[in-house]
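#struct-help
A.M.: can someone run this one for me? Single chain, 501 residues.
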Amino acid sequence: MRLADIAAFGDLDGNLAPDATVVLVSSGGGSGTFVELAAVRNEHGAAHPVPTVLLGDRILVREVRIEGRRILVRLRVRGATDPFSLRTREISRHYALDGNSLVLLDESEAEVQSTPAENYVYLPVRLDIVAGSSRSVDGSLAPGQIASYVAHGRAGEILDLTVRSDFDNGVLSVSGLTDGMTLVSRREYATQRSLVLPSEQDYSIKVVSLAGYQLAFMLQVQLRAASQGAAPTARPTDVPLPSRTPSPLPTPSGAAGLIERPLGDASEAAAAFARSRAPIWGVAIVVPARGVAFAENADTQVPVASIVKVLVLLVVLEQAHQDHRPVSEEDLALLWPMVTESDNDATSQLWERIGRGQAVSSYLRSVGVAGFTPDPGTSWGASFASARAMAAILGKLLNGEILDAPSRALALRMLDAVVPEQRWGVSAGTDLASGDRVELKNGWYPGEEGWRVNSVGIVRPRAGDPYAIAIVTGSRVSWQEGIDTIEGIAAPLNAAMRSVH
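D.P.: on it. Structure tokens below:
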């Protein structure tokens, strides 16, 4: 659970003291978020939280305001025919305090123009500074809005940052765009920091508005050489994701018995395109019938987002098999929406039932697959995995090396039934009308460092041997750019794989 960057203040209980309402977000790190509304009563200067109410899953909160002792919430949800990430239904709700509870007073709905795709783009402004120089930027942010900048720095240089705003309602967030390391989290509510840069790379600098009104701010950025003065005050902070360089792992063994070849041997066009899509990507293909694998950057581990649901599915099925029982109706009622619709609530329930990430790690070790680093808690989508690991486990599923036959058939049926709007990614370049089949699962999530977009699956061409494929990415500028990256690799690969020997 985290505090969203939107809040409102005003009198809710009639005692004239300023109360507050905030938006809370919880997520397993998968394909969406659960958004809740909370109120905090002010009684003689002491804060008294009120139990939250759920606003929805994967919604966009547009406004929160307190007026006339009521809370107004405006939010957008997807219409029945909306493409993914476009929301054309705007809902307005009024809530009020009833004792120590929030109650819904009324709700209205209107159709609005589709949210333009550019609203979903993380596209920072580059600050051209070198050691010994500085830059000031003025801006204005709506409630919850984020101003994004990028500055390049070298190892040992010192980055001084100060953001000035009314009541310090503008706070900093800083992370590396190549290694993904968070240097300043927005949850620190920092307005000033000096950072010794750990490596040469581009650094993401964000100003986040915590105000419930239009907030003017000024950002001051200075870059100093390492010898130019004071020691740093910053250190890498605790974040909800493991390091992008996890604990030492055994040598990847998911492709045991396979001859590994460079990605360019399968498709030079795919390899060239992939190399043009910095900073973070990895590709792996396993063709069991040919005893060959193709890979590039295949051991780069990225946050899995919703592709971890493939692993949860396999563990649920394996546990049932080991217990000599059929998969329960209760589990099936969760597995189907988890896989076919990317339902996060279902995933969270199954994650707890199987024993969280430790159970997934144990299962992968038992079948000889390395390259997975589990989240130790409830944030399943914040686990890390490599393209090699995902292609290896799917290759074993394809080749009949894991699960019993009925369980394999069930897993493949579910992956084959993913809803149409989520069938992008590794399916690019296939021709379903001509008889190609694709069983797949995608994952996507907007992190502080940019979008995490992944796609894994099994491709069964009408002519040619079937194969498992995994393409993972990180630090993408938008959801769509992540998809474009994956499909720009997958399309020439799928076209070429029919003729690879």
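A.M.: thanks! The chain has three domains: 2-116, 122-224, 259-497.
D.P.: also worth noting: The CA atoms of residues 140 and 216 lie 4 Å apart.
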